[in-house]
């Protein structure tokens, strides 16, 4: 069930009204809504989700009672096996067949029937985090499966995050009957939902067919076409994924919950470290806390730290999809993280040896350096997105080859002229990205100005207009959210 459909808004409105009418039945209502929302995709996969989550719930309750490492290991193995079977079994088999030259399974039999349950990667990570946190005594396991089901399957973030931790969300779930909704929080929730809808329908869905055309035949692209298509995909995936996250956070506000923001204008990042503090924040923090740090983090020397970073990012890439293109994408981001940390340390040592310039000169140099760094890193990020979007490794390298084709410089001006309209679109989308950053930084002051300066009748007219716009938007053609496939 897509967020931008009439069916979803019907479920939302019914659940919202009943939620505030029957305070003591809130958990039951949310539990049923979670089931209906997920069952819209597949009743079978709902049964799988319920089963895996129930077993994880039972295992978590056993962890504090002794033999905790055994139960933790069992829980992690079960969840990883569930994810691996549905997501990676054919990937592993195909690669074994390539290496051995043997046909291991028939393609028209059982294996051809495997379908990836939507949201499985997200709920697997949440279940593992919950088990680990119980084991490390960060939280106490809940004694109610209903509360656990609401925690793990809360429908606004069920399919594509944000990835919630037990200590972040479970205390809120336990307080569900006592949660209240203030007018301020209601307005903020609706604002985030509308913001997300606008990004999804007006940007991501409109750019998607253009991007599809560029990536259809990578080997036939000119240099300018290749860069233009890659730029547009970068904005498509950002608008698509951040739209879902914004709406999820907004929907959480409507029910009194506080979900963490998942994106903070990532394309203004000056380096890989900053990018992963702004892009898919809950995933990057999960990778840090449950993979990078357990591997040793930065505690065992510089080389081991770099290996741990690369390993964590390789796993992040593989988490996104069972294709070598995602592995390469994760490796490239891991490599950029490693290179940046070496570069930052070297630059700091160099600057410490040089005389400090005057404050005004220092500010100018810092501003110019930051602007250049943002520009360069945006180009690097754009290159990595090719591996994320391409249909296969060969297509990705064909696309990259077109981006760096030396022959492209011969008539580069003409190529750019032929792509002028889409390049203008790229610049407009980047300007919108910057505008979003400014608005998010000044939300409180903007809201204060809006209520202080704009008369109530005018505000009401704007709100009514927005309702009509939303109705018009959800009637149009629908595209799945990109991250549903992960």
UniProtKB/TrEMBL annotation:
Superkingdom of origin: Bacteria
Key word Manganese present: no
Name of this chain's protein: Membrane-bound O-acyltransferase family protein
Membrane topology type: Multi-pass membrane protein
Family label: Belongs to the membrane-bound acyltransferase family.
Transmembrane segments: 5-22, 28-58, 70-90, 110-132, 144-164, 322-343, 364-388, 421-439, 460-476
An MF annotation (GO) of this entry: acyltransferase activity
Location within or outside the cell: Cell membrane
Keywords: Acyltransferase, Cell membrane, Membrane, Transferase, Transmembrane, Transmembrane helix
GO BP terms: alginic acid biosynthetic process
Annotated Gene Ontology cellular component terms: plasma membrane
UniProt main location, coarse: membrane
């Amino acid at each position: 069930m897509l967020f931008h459909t009439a069916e979803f808004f019907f479920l939302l409105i019914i659940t919202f009204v009943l939620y505030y009418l029957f305070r003591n039945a809130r958990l039951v209502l949310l539990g049923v809504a979670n089931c209906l929302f997920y069952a819209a995709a597949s009743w079978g996969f709902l049964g799988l989700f319920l089963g895996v989550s129930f077993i994880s719930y039972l295992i978590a309750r056993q962890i504090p009672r002794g033999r905790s490492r055994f139960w933790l290991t069992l829980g992690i193995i079960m969840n990883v096996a569930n994810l691996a079977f549905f997501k990676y079994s054919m990937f592993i088999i195909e690669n074994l067949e390539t290496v051995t030259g043997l046909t291991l399974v028939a393609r028209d039999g059982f294996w051809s029937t495997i379908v990836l349950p939507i949201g499985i990667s997200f709920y697997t990570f949440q279940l593992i985090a919950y088990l680990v946190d119980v084991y490390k005594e960060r939280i106490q396991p809940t004694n109610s499966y209903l509360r656990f089901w609401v925690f793990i399957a809360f429908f606004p973030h069920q399919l594509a995050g944000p990835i919630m931790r037990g200590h972040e969300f479970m205390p809120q779930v336990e307080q569900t009957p006592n949660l209240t909704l203030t007018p301020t929080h209601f307005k903020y929730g609706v604002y985030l939902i509308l913001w997300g809808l606008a990004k999804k329908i007006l940007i991501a869905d409109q750019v998607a067919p253009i991007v599809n055309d560029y990536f259809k035949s990578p080997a036939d692209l000119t240099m300018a076409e290749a860069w233009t298509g890659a730029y547009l995909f970068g904005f498509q995936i950002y608008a698509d994924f951040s739209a879902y996250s914004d709406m999820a956070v907004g929907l959480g506000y409507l029910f009194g919950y506080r979900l963490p923001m998942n994106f903070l204008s990532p394309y203004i990042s000056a380096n890989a470290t900053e990018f992963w503090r702004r892009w898919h924040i809950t995933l990057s923090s999960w990778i840090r806390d449950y993979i990078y740090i357990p591997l040793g983090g930065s505690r065992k020397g510089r080389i081991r730290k770099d290996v741990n970073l690369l390993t964590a990012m390789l796993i992040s890439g593989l988490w996104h999809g069972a294709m070598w293109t995602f592995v390469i994408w994760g490796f490239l981001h891991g490599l950029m993280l490693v290179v940046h940390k070496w570069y930052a340390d070297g630059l700091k040592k160099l600057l410490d040896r040089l005389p400090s310039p005057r404050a005004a000169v220092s500010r100018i140099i810092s501003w110019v350096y930051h602007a250049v760094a943002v520009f360069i890193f945006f180009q690097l990020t754009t290159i990595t997105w090719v591996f994320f979007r391409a249909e296969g490794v060969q297509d990705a390298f064909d696309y990259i080859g077109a981006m760096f084709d030396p022959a492209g410089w011969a008539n580069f001006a003409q190529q750019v002229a032929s792509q002028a309209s889409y390049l203008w679109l790229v610049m407009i989308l980047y300007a919108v990205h910057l505008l979003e950053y400014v608005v998010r930084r000044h939300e409180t002051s903007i809201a204060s100005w809006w209520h202080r300066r704009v008369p109530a009748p005018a505000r009401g007219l704007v709100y009514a207009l927005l309702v009509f716009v939303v109705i018009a938007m959800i009637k149009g053609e629908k595209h799945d959210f990109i991250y549903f496939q992960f």
